[in-house]
C-alpha cells in the first residue's frame, strides 16, 4: 500500500504533514515529502488517499487477559480480592478451550477496531488463544497462567511441561507474530521456589517473564509481612526474576526503592490506569517512574475490569490522571503517552523492529479519520490525538503490512459469529454457577 499525502506521527513523535509512506513485504520501505516515481509507486499496489487522515504506529497492549471478554460486565463494583476470589475464579474454572478461543477472537476484533496490533496476554488455554491470534493475523506475547501454592519445584507442576511445549512449538511461529513468555501470576499466588525456578529457566532460554506486581495496597503490605519487609519488587529481585526481560503489570503501590530497582533492572512497567481506577486500586506513580528512567508501557488489563480493549481510552486516562495526581499540567506529555502505547509496548514484547514509523520497521500501522468535529481545529495533531480523538476514529489497522480492519470490516474475523459464540458461552457459564 502507498499512503498518499497523509499526516504521520513519526518515530520522534512529531507530526509531519503531506507525507508519502510506502509499505511492501510487511515493512515500511519509503517515507518522503514527494510521491515516488510512477514506476516505484506501482510496486506498492493500492494508493490510499490521506486527505484528513493521520497515520500512526499501531498500539501494543502490554497487559491483557483476552478470554476475560467472556466476563464483560459480570463482576462489577467490587474490591479486587473479592472480585477475584468470589466472582472471577469460580467463572474461570468453567472456561473451556473453545470458550477461550472465541473470546480471544472477539478480543482481537475489538483491539483491531481500535488500532491495536499486538498484545501481551496472560491466561490459560494457550493453544486456543494462539490459534485465534494466528488465524486473525495479529501479534501476541502469550504466557500460560500459573497459580502455585504448593512448596515444590516448578518442574513438578503440570504447567511446567505445558509451557515447555508452548516454547518449542510456538515461540516465533506465524512469521514471528507469536512469542512465548513465562508467567508468575504474582507474589501472593506463587511460591519463592517456583518464582526462582521460572527465573532460572527463562534466563537459560533467553525469554521474558510477565507478572503482576503491587496492584493493590493489601498485596504490597501483605508481601512485606510474609517476606521480612520485602516489597513485591524487592522479593522478585531477590529471587533473580529481574535477571531476564520482565513486564511487571500495575506497580501501583511501588515505593521509591522499588522504582530505583525497576529502573536499574530495565523492567517494563505495564500501566493499567482504567482498570486500577475501576477496581479502586489507586494511581501508579508514573511521573516518578518516568523521571527515574523506568520503561513505562500501557495496557488495558482484562475486559472484566476495564471494560473494553480501546487502548485510546487508556491513553487519555493515562495522560490525564498523572497531570491531576502530580498537580503538574506538564506531566506525561502526549508524546510520552504515545511512546508508552507504541514503542515502549513493542520493546516490552521483544519486538525491536516494531512500534515506530521508520524505514525498515514492521508495518504495524493505524489510520485515524481526522475529519470529525472533535479534531477541528487541528492546530496540533498530537494533542488532538491524545485528548480529543477517540479509538472510534481508527478507520484502518494494518499488521505486518496486511490490512486486518478497514472502514467497519474485518478481513480475517467473522465478528458476527464471534459475538454469538461469546454470548452463548457466557450465558452457559453463568447459568452453571
TrEMBL record:
**Alphabetically ordered keywords of this record:** Hydrolase
- CDD domains this protein is in? ATZ_TRZ_like
User: Signal peptide position in this chain?
Assistant: none
Q: Name one Pfam family in it.
A: Amidohydro_1
UniProt key word Hydrolase: yes
The record places domain Amidohydrolase-related at: 55-403
InterPro entries (UniProt xref): Amidohydro-rel, Metal-dep_hydrolase_composite, Metal_Hydrolase, MTA/SAH_deaminase
Superkingdom classification of source = Bacteria
PANTHER family, A to Z: AMIDOHYDROLASE-RELATED DOMAIN-CONTAINING PROTEIN (PTHR43794:SF11), AMINOHYDROLASE SSNA-RELATED (PTHR43794)
* UniProt-recorded name of the protein: 5-methylthioadenosine/S-adenosylhomocysteine deaminase
- Lineage start: Bacteria, Bacillati, Actinomycetota, Coriobacteriia, Eggerthellales
Q: Which gene encodes it?
A: mtaD_2
Amino acid at each position: 500500500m502507498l499512503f498518499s499525502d497523509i499526516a504521520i506521527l513519526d518515530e520522534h513523535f512529531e507530526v509531519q504533514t503531506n507525507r508519502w509512506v510506502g509499505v511492501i513485504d510487511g515493512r515500511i520501505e519509503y517515507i518522503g515529502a514527494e510521491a515516488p516515481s510512477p514506476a516505484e509507486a506501482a510496486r506498492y499496489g493500492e494508493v490510499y488517499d490521506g486527505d484528513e487522515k493521520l497515520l500512526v504506529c499501531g498500539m501494543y497492549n502490554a497487559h491483557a487477559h483476552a478470554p476475560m471478554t467472556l466476563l464483560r460486565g459480570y463482576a462489577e463494583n467490587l474490591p479486587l480480592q473479592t472480585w477475584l476470589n468470589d466472582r472471577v475464579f469460580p467463572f474461570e474454572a468453567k472456561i473451556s478451550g473453545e470458550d477461550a478461543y472465541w473470546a480471544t477472537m472477539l478480543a482481537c476484533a475489538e483491539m483491531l477496531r481500535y488500532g491495536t496490533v499486538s498484545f501481551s496476554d496472560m491466561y490459560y488455554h494457550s493453544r486456543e488463544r494462539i490459534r485465534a491470534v494466528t488465524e486473525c493475523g495479529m501479534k501476541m506475547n502469550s504466557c500460560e497462567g500459573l497459580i502455585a501454592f504448593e512448596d515444590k519445584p516448578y518442574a513438578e507442576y503440570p504447567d511446567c511441561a505445558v509451557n515447555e511445549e508452548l516454547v518449542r512449538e510456538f515461540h516465533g511461529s506465524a512469521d514471528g507474530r507469536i512469542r512465548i513468555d513465562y508467567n508468575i501470576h504474582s507474589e501472593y499466588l506463587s511460591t519463592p521456589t517456583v518464582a526462582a525456578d521460572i527465573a532460572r529457566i527463562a534466563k537459560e532460554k533467553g525469554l521474558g517473564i510477565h507478572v503482576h506486581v503491587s496492584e493493590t495496597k493489601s498485596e504490597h503490605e501483605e508481601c512485606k509481612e510474609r517476606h521480612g519487609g520485602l516489597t513485591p519488587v524487592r522479593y522478585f529481585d531477590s529471587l533473580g526474576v529481574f535477571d531476564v526481560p520482565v513486564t511487571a503489570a500495575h506497580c501501583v503501590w511501588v515505593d521509591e526503592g522499588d522504582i530505583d530497582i525497576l529502573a536499574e533492572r530495565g523492567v517494563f512497567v505495564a500501566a493499567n490506569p482504567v482498570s486500577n481506577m475501576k477496581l479502586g486500586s489507586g494511581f501508579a506513580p508514573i511521573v516518578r517512574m518516568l523521571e527515574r528512567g523506568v520503561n513505562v508501557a500501557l495496557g488495558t488489563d482484562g475486559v472484566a475490569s476495564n471494560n473494553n480493549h480501546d487502548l485510546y481510552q487508556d491513553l487519555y486516562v493515562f495522560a490525564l490522571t498523572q497531570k491531576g495526581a502530580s498537580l503538574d499540567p506538564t506531566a506525561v506529555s502526549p508524546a510520552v503517552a504515545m511512546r508508552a502505547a507504541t514503542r515502549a509496548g513493542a520493546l516490552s514484547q521483544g519486538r525491536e523492529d516494531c512500534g515506530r514509523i521508520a524505514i525498515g520497521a514492521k508495518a504495524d500501522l493505524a489510520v485515524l479519520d481526522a475529519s470529525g468535529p472533535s479534531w477541528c481545529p487541528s492546530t496540533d495533531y498530537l494533542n488532538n490525538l491524545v485528548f480529543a480523538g477517540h479509538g472510534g476514529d481508527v478507520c484502518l489497522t494494518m499488521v505486518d503490512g496486511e490490512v486486518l480492519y478497514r472502514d467497519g470490516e474485518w478481513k480475517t474475523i467473522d465478528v458476527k459469529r464471534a459475538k454469538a459464540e461469546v454470548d452463548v458461552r457466557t450465558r452457559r457459564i453463568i447459568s452453571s454457577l
